[in-house]
Structures are given as C-alpha cells and as structure tokens.
C-alpha cells in the first residue's frame, strides 16, 4: 500500500505518521512482502536534496519519509499542514526493537564506527529479551563493499535492515541494495546506534521537548556547524514557499 505524503517541504515529501503508526506500517509490510524504505528526514536532508538529484529521487521514492527534526515539524506548521508528531530515528530504532522482540522480526544493524553496532545490539537485546539481532557490521558505504555487505545481510536472513551511514549515503545505499538483501524493511537511522551504544549522549528530554535537540548536538559535536549552516537558508526558503503558495491560491 502506498502512503500519501501529508506535504512537501521544498519538494521533499513528508508523511504525517506517529511512531505507533510507523510500527504498524512496518508490521503490514512484513506480511505484504516486497522491500520498503524509510527515511528519517531533517532540514539538512531537504537542503542536501535540493543540490543532489539522486538523493531527491531516493526521498521521492521512499515509502515513508518520517518527520525527524524540529525544523520539519515547524516548517509543516508554518506551511499550514501541522504534523501530529516528530518521529526521530533513534526512537524508531528503540521501538522497532521492542516490537521485533514480540513479533520475531530479525534485525540487522549496519554502519557506525567499528564496534558501535555490536554494542548497540547488546543494549537492545538486554532491554528486549527475545530480540533477534541477526547481524551487525560496520563496513562502509563505498561501492567496493556493497556486494559483500549485501551477501552478509542476505545470509543473516534479516527482516529489517537499519543503516547508520549518515545521509545521504545511507539512503542511497538502501535505494540501491535493499531489495537484494532480502530484508523487507530498510531504514536510514543516522546517529541512532551511537546514542543507543552510549558513544554519543542524547539531548536531555526537556531540550528535546522544547525543540532544542539540534543545539545540544551542536554543543556536543561542534563540527556539526558545517551541516547546520544551511539552516538559515532553509528557514528563508520555507518562508518563500509559504509566500508562493499564498500567491497561487
Ligand atoms: N558513518 C559511517 N560511515 C561513514 C559515515 C558515517 O559509519 O562513512 C556513521 C557514523 O559513525 C554515525 C552515522 O553514520 O554513526 C551518522 O551519524 P550522524 O550523527 O552524522 O547522522 P544524523 O543523525 O545527523 O543523520
């Protein structure tokens, strides 16, 4: 079943789904068969996709573009299409693991620095007894490694493939390879394994609630300013988009 996006932000589709609905959708895909891709979209994705047609096409074809990042939910509200929930990649991974333990879905954790996916798998297993992590592997998104990684995931018999190579690499990787891995659902999850493994601390709950997670990440990882410097332009373009849509109505 194809889920229609609630809106487009600078041309990128965004779905209005809650975390619970996302898990139910995954469950439906498990019985439906085929390969389905999830992207966790934040404003940096939107800005990168403006310059990169391949990334734009991948997001355009993804089965679910989750509103990760307060910049997405704010823009949606500003554009007159408020979303019900922000769905962050790390929350998706944690809740998917809990549901997978109940349903018997087999997870594969691909990406992050060596050892991080293994540690994240241990944490997820200890929190969710019965969870099957069919495999973990750091690897890299380089083309030379693709065949080997696809083989590993396929051999592991994974149902759900979580890829942490950062955007756009993880999403392009999934678009190229998900169907070949045999997994029925694939999601690009950015820094989720780093958080779960405890390698990078997550912003305190109050900061997340008031929409300041991005600021916490910037303070902890100052190199992020490079990525975040596109945000003022993003805000301006969203402003113009509203202006344009008003002119057209
Ligand atoms: N990463 C990787 N290989 C690469 C580039 C990135 O394994 O070639 C990993 C990195 O270690 C991190 C994740 O990809 O675990 C990206 O996390 P980031 O915080 O940049 O993603 P975001 O949450 O901002 O989308």
- Strand segment count: 8
Shape: globular
Largest sheet, strands/sense/barrel:
6 strands, parallel
**Quaternary structure:** single chain
Structural class, judged by helices and strands? alpha/beta
Widest β-sheet, arrangement of strands: 4-3-8-7-5-6
Mean pLDDT: 96
Give every kind of bound small molecule, once each. uridine-5'-diphosphate
Helical amount? 40-55%
Order of helices and strands: EEHEHHEHHEHEHEHEHHHHH
Word description of this protein:
This protein has 249 residues and is of the alpha/beta class. The chain has one domain (7-216). It contains 13 helices and eight strands. The protein is globular and about 55 Å long. It binds uridine-5'-diphosphate (UDP).
Question: TL;DR?
Answer:
This protein has 249 residues and is α/β, with parallel strands linked by helices.
Question: Which terms summarize this structure?
Answer:
249 residues; six-stranded parallel β-sheet; two-stranded antiparallel sheet; 13 helices; 8 strands; binds uridine-5'-diphosphate
Which SSEs are present, and which pair or pack?
Elements: E1 7-9, E2 12-14, H1 19-32, E3 36-41, H2 43-51, H3 53-61, E4 64-67, H4 70-78, H5 89-103, E5 106-111, H6 116-127, E6 132-137, H7 146-156, E7 160-164, H8 169-181, E8 185-188, H9 192-197, H10 205-209, H11 213-220, H12 225-228, H13 231-247
Parallel strand pairs: 3-4, 3-8, 5-6, 5-7, 7-8
Antiparallel strand pairs: 1-2
Helix pairs in contact: 2-3, 7-8
Uridine-5'-diphosphate is lined by residues 111-113, 140-141, 164-167, 169, 190-191, 193-194.
